[in-house]
Structure formats: structure tokens, C-alpha cells
């Protein structure tokens, strides 16, 4: 294995439990608008949301437009004509309150930090929301820097996302940097596009497609044995 010094972590569903946060936040939103929260309505929203995020990652729609249109399209299924930007703001306020972490994520980060790795967050998300969640989870103190797509003006898998990080820290080299994330479409594809190694965090052990990671793990703590002390040259 290569000797890595710098680790870039995705946040949602890699370190922070976004699935739990999303479900709880949607419960609040649905209740406010008298929409039943059940598997049918939840899956309807998820399907619409996935479609818009796919467009964001492909660069065919602006993120701000997608995040508002997803709610307009969903609420239309129930006969509501809503202003998407208002519902989106309400939703983000709910998300901000959720900071449940992925099992063993905190312990893994702490150990990697103790070993001397430089640790960065690289997330497709909303700045205010992600920063508050990291602060509340106490993870924020473990990162050397945090990069959020809204503030950067570019989303993974665009190579420019990684270029911004490398331009800020010119001591980073592609051969000693590793990206860790759960999304093939953004984290792994983005790493491949930029030319750095990557770890696919795949707890559900899904089948991969034509996007190939360098490594694959199903438990975030497996990073510790993969990046053992003997192979680390972190400074």
C-alpha cells in the first residue's frame, strides 16, 4: 500500500449519519404541511431528491435551483403549490439540528489524528448546516480544514473541487492523499477524475458499477488496520 499523509473525508453517510438526520427532518416538514410520513411518501421524496442530486453531480442544473425544485415537485404530488425556497430553508434548519455520527467514526478520526495524519473534510453540502452539525458532533476539532461545496462554488465529482484543496495546501501531493467517501457518483468518481486514490465506504456492501475505488471498506474503523502505523508517513 502507498504511504499516505493526507486524508480527505466526505461527511454525510461517511462520518455523519445523514440517513437518520434526513428522515427526522422530513418528519417535521411533512407534519407541518399535513402530509403523512410513511414509506410511500418517504420513498417518493427520496426518488425525486436522487434525481435532482444526479443532475447536480452531472452539472446539468444549478444546486440552488435543484434544492428548491425538489420540494416543489414532491409537494405537487399532494396537491400543494409551495415556494420551494421557503420549504428548503425550513428543511435546512431541521438538518442543522442533527449530528448523529456513524458508528466508530469519532474513534477512528481521533486515532488517525493521533497518528499524525492531516485530516480534511470535503463535502457537497450547505455551509451553515454542515458546520453546525460538525460543531455539535464535536468532530470539528479533529479537522485541519473543512471544504464545503456551497462555499467553494463547485461540487464533487468536478476535479475543481480537489484542485481548490490542493491549491490552498501546496504541500499536498496526489500520491500521498486519500479520499474516503460513501458515494461512487461523487466521492469515488471525483477522486478518479482528479487522479487520487480513494476508499469507498460501503456499509451495505452494494455492488459497484463502472466507477472503481482503489479500496473498499464496510466499517469505517477498518481504515485503522488499512492505514497502519507502519505504512503511515504522516507528519
TrEMBL record:
Residues annotated as transmembrane: none
Molecular-function GO term, any one: 5'-nucleotidase activity
Pfam families per UniProt: HAD_2
Gene3D superfamilies: HAD superfamily/HAD-like (3.40.50.1000), Putative phosphatase, domain 2 (1.10.150.240)
UniProt superkingdom: Bacteria
Name of this protein: 2-haloalkanoic acid dehalogenase
Organism from which the protein derives: Paraclostridium benzoelyticum
Amino acid at each position: 500500500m502507498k504511504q499516505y499523509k493526507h486524508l480527505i473525508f466526505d461527511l454525510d453517510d461517511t462520518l455523519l449519519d445523514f440517513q437518520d438526520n434526513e428522515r427526522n427532518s422530513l418528519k417535521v416538514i411533512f407534519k407541518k404541511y399535513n402530509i403523512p410520513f410513511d414509506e410511500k411518501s418517504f420513498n417518493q421524496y427520496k426518488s425525486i431528491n436522487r434525481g435532482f442530486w444526479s443532475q447536480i453531480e452531472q452539472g446539468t442544473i444549478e444546486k440552488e435551483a435543484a434544492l428548491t425544485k425538489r420540494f416543489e415537485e414532491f409537494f405537487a404530488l399532494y396537491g400543494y403549490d409551495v415556494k420551494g425556497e421557503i420549504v428548503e430553508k425550513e428543511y435546512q434548519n431541521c438538518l442543522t439540528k442533527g449530528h448523529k455520527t456513524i458508528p466508530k467514526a469519532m474513534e477512528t478520526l481521533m486515532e488517525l489524528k493521533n497518528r499524525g495524519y492531516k485530516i480534511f473534510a470535503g463535502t457537497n453540502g450547505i455551509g451553515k448546516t454542515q458546520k453546525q452539525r460538525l460543531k455539535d458532533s464535536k468532530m470539528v476539532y479533529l479537522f485541519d480544514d473543512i471544504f464545503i461545496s456551497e462555499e467553494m462554488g463547485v461540487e464533487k465529482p468536478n476535479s475543481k473541487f480537489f484542485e481548490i484543496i490542493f491549491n490552498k495546501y501546496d504541500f499536498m501531493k496526489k500520491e500521498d492523499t486519500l479520499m474516503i467517501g460513501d458515494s461512487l457518483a461523487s466521492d469515488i468518481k471525483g477522486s478518479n477524475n482528479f487522479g487520487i486514490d480513494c476508499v469507498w465506504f460501503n456499509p451495505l456492501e452494494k455492488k459497484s458499477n463502472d466507477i472503481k475505488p482503489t479500496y473498499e471498506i464496510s466499517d469505517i474503523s477498518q481504515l485503522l488496520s488499512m492505514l497502519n502505523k507502519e505504512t503511515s508517513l504522516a507528519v
